[in-house]
Specification:
Pfam family, one: Peptidase_S28
Structural class: mainly alpha
Family: Belongs to the peptidase S28 family.
Strand order of the largest sheet: 1-2
GO biological process, one term: proteolysis
Shape: globular
Oligomer: single chain
Largest sheet: 2 strands, parallel
Keywords: Glycoprotein, Hydrolase, Protease, Signal
Number of helices: 7
Strand content: under 5%
InterPro entries: AB_hydrolase_fold, Peptidase_S28
C-alpha cells in the first residue's frame, strides 16, 4: 500500500523508525558489531569510537575533527525548548563537546581547538554566519527538512527570517527534501522539487560562466 499525501501517520511512522533502527541500523550501517553495543557508550575512553584513527574508521572521525577543532560545532542536537521534534534534547552541544576532548586529547602540547576555547561563535565572527549574504556568484541550496538548514541563511531561526533569494544571490529550499539530495542527479527524475532546483542552479551557473569569459576578454 502506497502512503497518501499525508504519509502513514505519526504512530506507524514511529513504529517503522524504531524497527529500522533496531533491525537495520543498530547492527548494520551503525558502527557497532553484532555482538556488542559498546560503541554507543560515549563515556568509555578506550572505546573504538575514540581510539580508531584509521582513515577508513566508521565513526566519521575526520568530520569530527573539523567540528571540534575549527570549531564548526555542526552537530544535530535536540530542538529548542519552544519547539518539538527529534532528536531528544539529551543530544545537546555539551554532549558533543565532551566527546571532542576524549576523541582528540592533548598530544605533545598540542590541543584541539575546543580545548582552547574555540567555538562556533568564532566561526560565525569570521564568516558572518547567517548574515554573510553580500556574496558574488554563490548559490545556497537546502532541503526543507535538512537538519543543517538551520545553520544556513535559509534558517527559520535567522533574525528577520530566512534570506530572501535574489537574482544575483540565489537561495533555494527544496520542498520536503533532506540533506544534499540535489547533488544526485537521478533524484531529479523522481522528485520534481529537486529537478526544479537542479535546473535553476545549472542555468545560473551557465550564466556566470558566460559572464566570466565575456569579462575575461
Amino acid at each position: 500500500m502506497r502512503p497518501g499525501p499525508n504519509g502513514v501517520g505519526l504512530f506507524k511512522s514511529l513504529d517503522n523508525y524504531a524497527k529500522w533502527w533496531r533491525d537495520f541500523y543498530l547492527h548494520g550501517d551503525g558502527a557497532c558489531d553484532d555482538k556488542t553495543l559498546d560503541c554507543y557508550n560515549t563515556h568509555n575512553v578506550t572505546s573504538d569510537l575514540f581510539t580508531n584513527t584509521t582513515v577508513a574508521n566508521p565513526y566519521n572521525r575526520q568530520w569530527m575533527w573539523l567540528t571540534c577543532n575549527e570549531a564548526f560545532e555542526y552537530w544535530q542536537v535536540g530542538a529548542p525548548e519552544s519547539t518539538v521534534g527529534y532528536p531528544p534534547r539529551f543530544f545537546n552541544v555539551e554532549y558533543y563537546r565532551r566527546q571532542c576532548l576524549i576523541m582528540f586529547p592533548e598530544m605533545n602540547g598540542h590541543k584541539v581547538g575546543m580545548a582552547k576555547g574555540i567555538r562556533a561563535t568564532n566561526v560565525n565572527h569570521h564568516t558572518g554566519g547567517w548574515f554573510n549574504t553580500n556574496t558574488t556568484r554563490l548559490i545556497w541550496v537546502n532541503g526543507e527538512y535538512d537538519p543543517w538548514r538551520s545553520l544556513s541563511v535559509a534558517s527559520d531561526f535567522r533574525p528577520g527570517g530566512p534570506f530572501v533569494s535574489t537574482e544575483d544571490r540565489p537561495s533555494f529550499v527544496i520542498p520536503k527534501a533532506s540533506h544534499c539530495q540535489d547533488l544526485i542527479m537521478h533524484n531529479g527524475v523522481v522528485n520534481q522539487g529537486v529537478k526544479k532546483v537542479q535546473d535553476a542552479t545549472i542555468k545560473k551557473m551557465k550564466e556566470w560562466v558566460r559572464d566570466f569569459h565575456r569579462h575575461k576578454h
